[in-house]
Structures are given as structure tokens and as C-alpha cells.
Specification:
heterodimer; A: mainly alpha; MetI-like fold; 2 domains; two-stranded antiparallel sheet; B: MetI-like fold; 0% strand; MetI-like (chain B); membrane (chain B); transmembrane (chain B); MetI-like_sf (chain B)
């Protein structure tokens, strides 16, 4: 067959492949495009509009952002969200890593512990929040009873105190999330070759040295991924706080997502709330990019 | 000698810490079997003096639990079925059919996974409001059944299935749809199980979706029902814990049955 005769046939085949490909993707794509892709793009545009649930949309440039930076609620929420992240990220990471290293040994009953430690992660949030509120109950809750028993006369008021509400939320969230990241670390530990440990043992390395010079470097890709996931999820925090403290007492645990929800859905200020959500998006994006950069620099 | 001492030490540490992690569950179960007045006792009583199993009967009369459970089951099953079906179907298009524009399209899918949901929940809400779907189950089904995550998870798995299999089937005259149904689907059972379990549990536990979209008590899920009970009767500690136990129980059963797939699903989505 000559070359020119082949071309239309190839094109026809490629066109039919396009059809077939799209036909597979379309059922999912329709829902995805209408309710994820379009909203994602729209939220960017919305932040430049003056649009409340009762008014017609009007282009206002950066007005929403200007209003935002003069808004006290926004700054409080931003500060609180950062506070939550600073507590939640390192504590969850340390707990997940610690449990993963413990569970990676050949001990009896490891399967049971892995199951038990993972379970909080898939326990419903409402149940988690309710139980922790009771455990941390200031007067008669078991946590404060325990603290008094070990000699702390004036234990914290936890969710009833503006100072201690955030630590209370962080404790509950670390408890809930550690199992998930532990599984990621356990998967990471499997990728470190056993020969490295054997060689180190022959050279007389101590347990700490093996951890410091083999385990930690070997886990670097996992830690990188865990850090990104943890940071992003910290900035998105919403449900746990909504159920545990509703942002209170006062504004002690008010976070960015709650501001978006209250302004956008409760008050119907679509434009303004989208400006706040842009900030959330940019923060998450920036953290991801910075961590990717650092990771790259470490590798070279 | 030192090795066995270290082993023992690691064991003690592991047991101690694990018990600490399980304390909230112990508190939940033990309180669910007490009287309200006994929940906050000094000192803490981990095993109730008397087991009040009647709490688990009374709660059905106190709250329309059956309605809540039925709604939760309906939403979780529908969303999971749609997600698994459309997700695996789309994943075949992304992993096994080559056509122009495919990779750009996939990038759009991946890109949205990185965007926090809170950043676009307001436009979503506006769309639902304009469509008149706020306060219907349909709104939640539409919002959650077509997630990019499901497509991503399934595509990653399909990429590990050698192309030679589908090539051979193609030569045997099987259509692309036939290959998906008869070759790829049966091979991807573990991934389908992972996706189904993760989606089911996520939907069952979801609080924000129902909280934003469902105002009518008759449409509420178990999570909303439990939250509202806590708000209304905040001194009925035992009953609150009974409700919590009942809301967690189905998840525990599903988790214990499909543990392997949960762990695999998380490891796959995390490290590829």
C-alpha cells in the first residue's frame, strides 16, 4: 500500500480511538466537570466579584481582598489555622513514625496493634469529637482526673478555655490521624534494604545510630510526602473543630475554612468568601511548591 | 541478652502506647452501658457496676435512628456504586486507550485533587442552589460520586496490568468495552475493593457534606443525627455514647472484613 492511501485510514482509526477513549471517560467526566472542574475555576473568578445571594454579580477587582485584609476575623482565623498546623504536623509525624518503627519489628501481635492504631482514622468524626469532649471535660473528665492524680492541682480547662481549646483540638486530631500516616511510614520502611541493617550491625552500630543513619535517610521520600499531606490537611481543617468547639470559646479555635463556610454559605457572601478561599488555596499551593523545591535541593 | 532486653522494652512501649490510643474507645463503650449519673465518676470506673444494655434499646425510641441509618446506608451505597463504576470505566480510558488530549485531561483531574475542597465549596453550593438541589440526597450523590481520586486510584492500578493482555484480547476480536468488562475488571478486584471500602467509609463518616446540604430532619444521616442529639441533650452522657457506639459499629465490621484492602489502598494512593 502506498503512503498517501494509508493516511486517511490511520486518521479514521485515530478518530475512532478518540471516540472510544472519550466514551469511557465521559460518564465520570460529566459529573467531575460540572461539580469540581467548573467550581474550581469559578472560585477564582468569584473572588473578583461583588456578589451576595440577593444581588447581581458585579466586577469589583481587588475590593474583596482589601476588605479581607482589614477584617479582624480573617486574621484571627489565619493565625489559629497556622497555630493548629504548627501543633498538628510535627506531633502527628513523630507519633506516626514512632509507631511505624515499633511495629516494623518482628514482634508477636503486630497485626493486632496495626489494626487498633489505624482504627481511629476511620472512626466517624462526630463520635471522635464527642468522646474527646467528654474525656477532656474540665471537672470530672478522666484526663483531668489523671492529671490531678499525678500532682497537677490546676489542670487545663481544655475546650472551655480560650488558651487550651486549640491544644485540646490538636490532641484529638493527632490521635485520629496518626494511624493513617503510620501506614504510609510502614510502607516506606519496607523499601529500606535489610542488608543495610545487617552491615551496620556487623560494624557495631548502636540502635540509635542505625535509626539516625539508615532508617531516617531511607524514609526521606515518605517523610516528604507525609509532610505535604499533613500540612495541606492542617490548613483544610474543618469538621473536627466544627463539631468539637464550633470555633470557640469566643474565636479561640476559629479557622479559615469556617470563615469560608460562614461567609459563603451561611451569609451568602459568595464573592467575599471566595477571596478567603483563594488565600487558603494559595497557602496550600505555596507550601507544596516550597517543599518540592527543598526536596529537590536535598536530592542533588 | 541486650537484644532480648531491647525487644522486651520495645514490647512494653508498644503495648503501653497502644493501650493509651485505645482508651477513648474503652471510655465510649463503657459509658454507653452506664447510667448518665455514673459516666463521670471519681475515680473513673472503666467497667460499669451494672451493664445497662437497655440503653441500646431506649435510643431507638429517643431518636429516629432507623431513618438516619437508612439515609446513611442509601447515600453510602449509591455513591460507592457510582464512584466505582464510573471511576474504573474512566480509568480504562486514561490507562489503556491512547488518544489526543488524554494526558491534558488527566492533568485536569490530578490538578483538582490538589485544590482544597473548601476553596470551591461555595461555587458548588451556588450551582446546587440554582439547580434547586439543596436539601436533597441527589445533591450529595452528584457531589461525591464522581471524584477525581477514584479515577486516579484505579488508573494507577490499571497501569500495572500489562498491555499485552488487552492486545491479545483485541486480536481475538473483543471490543474495548469487552476488554474492560471481561479482562481488566476481573483482574482489578483488589483495587476495586480498596476504592469501594474507602469511598463507603468516607461517605458514611462525612459530616460537612450533609451538614451543609441537608436541613430536613427526614434526610439526615447518622452523623447529623448524632450531632443534633448531642446539641439537644448534652447531659445525657450515656445515651450520647450509645449513639456513638452505634454510629461506629458498622464501620468497625466493614473495616475488620476488608482491612487488607484499606491498607493497600492507602499505600497505593500514597506512594505512587
Amino acid at each position: 500500500m502506498s503512503a498517501p492511501a494509508q493516511a486517511p485510514a490511520t486518521r479514521r482509526r485515530s478518530r475512532s480511538r478518540t471516540w472510544i477513549g472519550w466514551s469511557f471517560i465521559l460518564p465520570n467526566f460529566l459529573g467531575f466537570a460540572a461539580l469540581t472542574l467548573i467550581p474550581v475555576i469559578a472560585s477564582l473568578a468569584l473572588s473578583f466579584l461583588d456578589w451576595d445571594s440577593y444581588s447581581t454579580p458585579r466586577w469589583v477587582g481587588l475590593d474583596n481582598f482589601e476588605r479581607m485584609i482589614h477584617n479582624d476575623n480573617f486574621w484571627t482565623a489565619l493565625r489559629n489555622t497556622a497555630y493548629y498546623a504548627v501543633g498538628h504536623v510535627p506531633l502527628t509525624l513523630a507519633a506516626a513514625l514512632g509507631f511505624a518503627v515499633l511495629l516494623n519489628q518482628k514482634l508477636k501481635g503486630v497485626r493486632f496493634f496495626r489494626t487498633a492504631l489505624f482504627f481511629p482514622y476511620i472512626t466517624s468524626l462526630v463520635a471522635v469529637a464527642v468522646v474527646w469532649n467528654m474525656l477532656l471535660s474540665p471537672d470530672l473528665g478522666p484526663v483531668n482526673q489523671f492529671l490531678r492524680a499525678i500532682g497537677i492541682d490546676n489542670p487545663p480547662g481544655w475546650t472551655t478555655s480560650t488558651t487550651w481549646a486549640m491544644p485540646a483540638v490538636i490532641v484529638a486530631s493527632v490521635w485520629r490521624d496518626l494511624g493513617y500516616y503510620m501506614i504510609l511510614y510502614l510502607a516506606g520502611l519496607q523499601t529500606i534494604p535489610a542488608e543495610l541493617y545487617e552491615a551496620a550491625e556487623v560494624d557495631g552500630a548502636t540502635g540509635w545510630q542505625r535509626f539516625r543513619y539508615i532508617t531516617l535517610p531511607g524514609l526521606r521520600p515518605t517523610t516528604f510526602f507525609v509532610l505535604i499531606m499533613l500540612t495541606i490537611s492542617s490548613f483544610k481543617v474543618f469538621d473536627l473543630i466544627q463539631v468539637m468547639t464550633e470555633g470557640g470559646p469566643g474565636r479561640a479555635t476559629l479557622v479559615l475554612s469556617q470563615v469560608i463556610y460562614r461567609e459563603g454559605i451561611v451569609q451568602g457572601r459568595f464573592g467575599y468568601s471566595s477571596a478567603v478561599s483563594m488565600v487558603l488555596f494559595v497557602i496550600v499551593l505555596t507550601i507544596t511548591i516550597v517543599q518540592f523545591r527543598l526536596q529537590k535541593r536535598n536530592e542533588t | 541478652m541486650t537484644a532480648s532486653v531491647r525487644r522486651a522494652l520495645a514490647y512494653v512501649l508498644l503495648v503501653g502506647l497502644s493501650v493509651a490510643v485505645l482508651v477513648p474507645f474503652a471510655w465510649m463503650v463503657s459509658s454507653s452501658l452506664k447510667l448518665d449519673a455514673e459516666v463521670f465518676s471519681v475515680p473513673v470506673r472503666w467497667i460499669p457496676v451494672e451493664f445497662h444494655w437497655s440503653n441500646f434499646v431506649t435510643i431507638w425510641e429517643r431518636v429516629p435512628l432507623l431513618t438516619y441509618l437508612r439515609n446513611s446506608v442509601f447515600l453510602s451505597v449509591t455513591i460507592t456504586a457510582l464512584q466505582v463504576l464510573t471511576g474504573s470505566f474512566a480509568a480504562y480510558g486514561f490507562a489503556k486507550v491512547r488518544f489526543p488530549g488524554r494526558d491534558v485531561l488527566f492533568l485536569a483531574y490530578i490538578g483538582t485533587i490538589a485544590v482544597p475542597w473548601q476553596a470551591y465549596m461555595v461555587p458548588q453550593y451556588v450551582i446546587m442552589e440554582k439547580a434547586g438541589l439543596v436539601n436533597t440526597h441527589l445533591s450529595l450523590i452528584l457531589l461525591q460520586a464522581f471524584s477525581a481520586f477514584g479515577v486516579f486510584l484505579m488508573r494507577q492500578y490499571y497501569l500495572t496490568i500489562p498491555d499485552e493482555l488487552s492486545e491479545a484480547a483485541r486480536l481475538d476480536g473483543l471490543s474495548e468495552y469487552g476488554i474492560w468488562a471481561r479482562i481488566i475488571l476481573p483482574l482489578s478486584k483488589p483495587a476495586l475493593a480498596s476504592l469501594a471500602l474507602l469511598t463507603f467509609v468516607n461517605t458514611w463518616n462525612d459530616y460537612m457534606g450533609p451538614f451543609i446540604y441537608l436541613t430536613d430532619n427526614k434526610l439526615w444521616t447518622i452523623q447529623l443525627g448524632l450531632r443534633s442529639f448531642v446539641g439537644l441533650y448534652d447531659a445525657e452522657y450515656a445515651m450520647i455514647m450509645t449513639g456513638s457506639v452505634l454510629s461506629v459499629l458498622p464501620i468497625l465490621v466493614i473495616f475488620l472484613l476488608g482491612q487488607k484492602y484499606f491498607v493497600r489502598g492507602i499505600a497505593t494512593s500514597g506512594l505512587k
